[in-house]
Amino acid sequence: MYEPIRTKSVHSMADDAGYPHRSREEELDIQLAGHLAALLAVTDELRALTPSAELDDAAEQLAYQVARLRGGVHPPRSAVAAAIHEPHLSALHQRAHALAGRALVVAASRADTAAAILAAGRMDAHADASRLVGAP
């Protein structure tokens, strides 16, 4: 009634020796470094628009964490020159807040306390800055 299966199923496990695998921790490191690098890029853009010592310090801390997660490889830094206008600043702070939130989630699942504290601090700072920039 049924014909026997003569070939390997496409759903069978692939040969493990064919390609390198990364552990869950390595994958989380890559994810966290990516989120922090994106947050660093937005922070560099904000620093170009509204220079402040707080943003300088945050950028240095973010660069340090990204380098730590990437095995000492420092992230590229952005040098942005753009016109200042309020909606743009508000959008940058909102984007930075969202990126910091993503980094916080990954840092928490990875149990990386230093990165989690940094991400939570950046979330608070960008939430406050977003309210100040958006206030009439």
Description:
α1 runs antiparallel to α2 (53-69), α1 (24-49) runs antiparallel to α3 (86-110) and α3 packs antiparallel against α4 (113-134). The longest helix is centred in the N-terminal third of the chain and has 26 residues, at 24-49. It is elongated, with a radius of gyration of 21 Å. The mean pLDDT is 85. Helix content is 66%, strand content 0%. The protein is mostly helical.
Spell out the key features of this protein:
4 helices; mainly alpha; elongated; 136 residues; 66% helix
Describe the structure in brief.
The protein has 136 residues and is mainly alpha-helical. It has four helices and no strands.
Describe the secondary structure blueprint for this structure:
Blueprint: H1 24-49, H2 53-69, H3 86-110, H4 113-134
Helix pairs in contact: 1-2, 1-3, 2-4, 3-4
